[in-house]
Amino acid sequence: MPRDIESFVRSYLLTLSESEFIRSSITSREYERVAAFARSDACREIARRLLKEREVAVSSLGMSLRLKELREVSGSRFWHIELMVARNRRRKRRVCFVGHRFQTAISNALRWNLAQVLEPYGIELDWSGKDPASVQILEDIVRRIKAADFCVFDTRATDGKPNVYIEAGIAYAVNTPFILFEFMDGERGASMPSDLAHAVTLRYSTYEELFPAFYAALPEFAARNFS
Which of 89, 43, 81, 88 has the alpha carbon at shortest distance from 65? Predict the structure, then answer.
C-alpha cells in the first residue's frame, strides 16, 4: 500500500475530478473547486484523519470520503476512496453477474473488490455456481445473466479456458449490458473475440490499476444502461 496517504488522496481527487469533467459529469467550476481543495492544507488534514477514522466529511465539497482496502490476487492490499454525496432518492436494488476464472485467489480478490466498490450503489453480486443445488450449469448461467442488470467479466488467467468469453457471449445474445476487464500480462493480453469488440473494456495489469478506472466509469455506464 502507498505509504504517503496525503499524496494518495490528493492524486485520487485530482484524477477523478478531471475524469468526471472530461465526461461532462461535472462543470469546469466544480472541477476547479475540487482541484483547489486537493492542493490545499485542508486536504492534508483530511487525509490524515481519513487514515485514522476511515470516513471523513468534507463540508466545503458537500461530500464525505470513505477509505477502503481492496485486494490483489497476490494478497497485497491497496487503498480505494469512495465518494459519498447526499441524495434525496433511494437507488433501485440491482444485480451484477460476475464471470471469471474459478481460482480461489481470483475469486476472493475480485468479488471482494467489486462488493466494496458497488456497495454504495446498492448493487449485489451474483455468479455461476452460487446456488449449489443447481445441476444444470449452463441453464443456471443463462438464467442468472438474463436476470442481472449488468455483468462484469474478468479475463485474467483465461488462456485456454474460454468459459468467461462464453458467458460474455451469452450476455451479448440476451442483451444484458456488460463491462469486460481485459487482463494484460506485459505486452500479451487475453485475445478479444471480434464479436465482443464493442463491449465496454477496461484493460489492466493489476487491480490497483483497474478499480479506480472502473469506479470512474460506473456513473456513465449506469446512465447509459439504466433508467
Answer: 81
